[in-house]
Amino acid sequence: MNLLKEHHSEACSHGQGCGCKQEGGERLHHDHNHSHGHSDDHDHSHHHGHDHDHSHTHGHDHGCGCCSGEHDHGTDGGLSLAAMGAAFALLAGGMILTACGVSWFGGWTAAAWYGCALVLAGGRVVANALRSLRRGDVFSEFMLMTIAAAGAFCIGEYPEGVAVMLFYCVGEWLQDKAVDRARDDIRRLVAIKPDWADVINSDGGVERRRPSDVAVGEVIEVKVGQRVPLDGTLVGSAASFNTAALTGESLPRLIEKGGEVLAGMIASDAVVRLQVVRPEKESAMARILDMVEDAAARKAPAELFIRRFARVYTPTVIVLAVLAVAVPWLVGLVTDGFEFRFGQWFHRALVFLVVSCPCALVVSIPLSYFAGIGAASKRGILFKGGNCLDAITEVDTVVFDKTGTLTTGEFSISKVVGLTDDDMRQVAAIEQGSTHPIAKAIARAPYSSPQGGKYQPAESLPSPGETELDAVEERGALGMRATDKAGNVWLVGSTRLLEQEGVEWPKELDAVEETLVAVARNARFRGYILLSDTLKDDAAHAIKQLKELEISTEMLSGDKQALTDRVAAQLGVGHAQGGLLPEGKMECVQTLSNASHKVAFVGDGINDAPVLAASHVGIAMGAMGSDAAIETADIVIQTDQPSRVAEAVGIGRRTRKVVKQNIALAIGAKAVVMVLGVLGVANLWEAVFADVGVALLAVLNATRLSR
């Protein structure tokens, strides 16, 4: 996974973007066609196509050049501990010999001695400077260090020339170690991907294969403590799974027979068998890894600014360093009494060059965003890039979809009115083709005749081949229309569907607050089904947290206004609007945006794909098995907990705070030492320590985000 080496490489060629606003205001999208039309009010339209064509071409450059400069730590730019130790020994030995006044140590002997130390400490830096020069990059940090060291040797300051290279390399080595620690969260994601799967073959035996070689429909076995290699449905009885890798939650999750188990989970209490439902490259874990890898290519505005800044800054400081020598020389020519000493001013220019290297900015800023993304991933919050971390800090209004976001989305039938046993079986058969939560609740099981006023589930649901339906079609966000083999035309959906088809219904139904599904046959109203939903445990806490962050909340729903208002009152949502189709939700979000609000829309990633794409920040709740949740949203909350939205805002704000601190620290400290260097107060030793020290402080500050 090249991201582990390229935390801010520009060598990533994607046709994708995070979805948050980039430079110039354009919105970057994946090459995926989404046409999702569900709404809370029994919206059944569901279609999405995906043409995955991810082309990753990551280089192995560290990307820490002062200009376009690539810092080849990932290949041959690093310095081994042995080389650093030998260089340090030669430097210290030479200084001791000089201090002791050893007669033979001086002149060419000292130059050769320190020259060996310089080759050990700076050989690779010089090689990288030459490579950068061949690429047309004159102003790389390698060139700065090379000029400074060579200049020090030219004026006889051999120890300082070696120190420039040695401490620069030591600082870079320490920075790399800090960067590695910040990447641990992402490394853990990579480590959780199993290398093999135990497949049950035709004779009942177990055959070990690579996950990529397992076909959809095959059955795999996972022992206690093993990690699930592929997405599948549970074949045997209910079992518990550790989902921490996917959700950040330590509590085990009980999954019933037939429930979906995602790659990356761990079997907790029993040997389980799963029927594979997706190939390895489309598994939940593969998508998470791809998304986190791609996140490095999506730059935050601060990162983009630093890159532009470095391209102007480095040539500017080189010109200023030249002027630091040229101006005193010119003053000496025209001013009596001013004695120009070339060695003195050249030394000051070298100090200016060493301090000017903007590594603290170019390394620590991208690292800050990378650390923020890693910290969020531990909490089950997946940001699709540094620009998404920045974008969420600007949000002043969070708009929630109701069903499946603030509520569980797991509907249950509370009442059936006017429908016979045969009617219910037919309705269940019609609803089988939909993925909407309401349709799933109705299609979960057919129903027998009422017993004691309640409809009881029958033993099994008829398979699609057993139903007597000639045609089933979706009617946008309104419901479904079907024709059975006897020629009867069925309508199952909202009262708006009946109105569209010219079917009359009892007007008292308009006053019903619960979720209602009306049923008609041959243009005659037959009856209706009432369903109930429950609030998520942390929904009210999520609204309270956002209010504490001074973020206003709104709720949009396809359900009736009365029901929507009741839920909003229970949760403390500031404003709620019901009776909305997907285009209605889009209009509400656009109205807020037009009023200069920065809106984050939180939905299920399937029903609300258009709104997720149109909002300033789109946040998908759970649904890690859904293409739409991964592809459309800018942020994915894997735990399906609305309270994680406030956590995402908090992580984004902390990241931006650290970025601002690092920019102020790097620019402020360097400006002070650069001025002191020109005035002759700071020497090369102090310049090296200032450059390395500031860079390390900035990097260590960034890694705080990983905790």
Describe it for me?
By secondary structure, this protein is an alpha+beta fold. The chain has 22 helices and 24 strands. It has a 7-stranded mixed sheet with strand order 12-24-23-22-13-20-21, with helices on both faces. A 6-stranded antiparallel sheet has the order 4-3-5-11-6-9, with no helix packed on it. Helix 9 (342-356) packs antiparallel against helix 21 (643-678) and helix 16 (539-548) runs parallel beside helix 21 (643-678). Residues 1-19, 21-77 and 448-465 have low confidence and may be disordered.
Helices and strands in order, then pairings?
Layout: E1 32-36, E2 46-50, H1 81-99, H2 108-134, H3 141-154, H4 158-182, H5 184-191, E3 197-200, E4 206-209, E5 219-222, E6 232-234, E7 239-242, H6 244-247, E8 253-255, E9 260-261, E10 266-267, E11 272-276, H7 284-295, H8 301-334, H9 342-356, H10 359-378, E12 381-383, H11 386-393, E13 397-401, H12 402-406, E14 412-417, H13 421-431, H14 437-443, E15 469-474, E16 479-484, E17 489-493, H15 495-500, E18 515-521, E19 524-532, H16 539-548, E20 552-556, H17 561-571, E21 575-577, H18 582-594, E22 599-603, H19 609-614, E23 617-621, H20 627-632, E24 635-637, H21 643-678, H22 684-703
Parallel strand pairs: 13-20, 13-22, 20-21, 22-23, 23-24
Antiparallel strand pairs: 1-2, 3-4, 3-5, 5-11, 6-9, 6-11, 7-8, 7-10, 12-24, 14-19, 15-16, 16-17, 17-18, 18-19
Structure summarized in a few sentences:
The protein is of the alpha+beta class and 707 residues long.
